[in-house]
Design goal:
The protein has 252 residues and is of the alpha/beta class. Helices cover 39% and strands 24% of the residues.
Amino acid sequence: MTDFVGELTKRLLIEAGIESGMRVLDVGCGQGDVSLLVAGLVGERGKALGVDRDARAVVAAGERARALGLANASFAEANLTALPAEYGGFDAIVGRRVLMYQPDAAAALKHLVPALEPGGVMFFLEHDATVVPTSKAPLLLHERVHHWIWETVRREGANIHMGAELRSSLARAGLAVEQVRAEAIVQTPEQHYPVGNIVRAMLARIVQQGVAKEDEIAVETLDQRLIEERAKANATYIGEIVFGAWARKPTR
């Protein structure tokens, strides 16, 4: 199964200028998915530091880096809006699905700017529910699954329109926006995206937020039912839009 978001993240990181020898900070790193991508791009001469406020995630990320033999990737417990004073001098600061959980994305970005070298790049990737779901044919199960995911995130306090607001947030933080990209995750009868894995990972949260019940979701058969629904309708479905944007800190 193609890792659409992982491949998109890597491609946009390269477009944003992440390259060998750079020192990069990954904020809200979770278990290190983006940090490990960055470590591969910056090479042995570079450095990838991932920070997250979840201590368990930081430990898991460190274990993954060691298992992969990535000595240039390290992890620490820290909040992106309260970085330790010694965190600075980064050539780039990156993050994925992080700003949507900030009460004020521009204010969060402003907290990060002092840790970035003049001329350094700030890159973020965020999902967005502004124009999805969309399909010419009615796909009721797809629409329900979309609701389960995004309504849960909304009830948790996240901004489900963060992708579309990336440019304005970077600009309000005093950064010079260079590029904004948006790509859709397209599903067809032949082309599938593993939504069942996402719902499985979110299941406890979906139930906790009162969005749906576990037996209603029936996660073990969910992917197959989605595939069958698209095949029966001979339909193309777009359930997610992913935005990536980057900007630079002024040199003076």
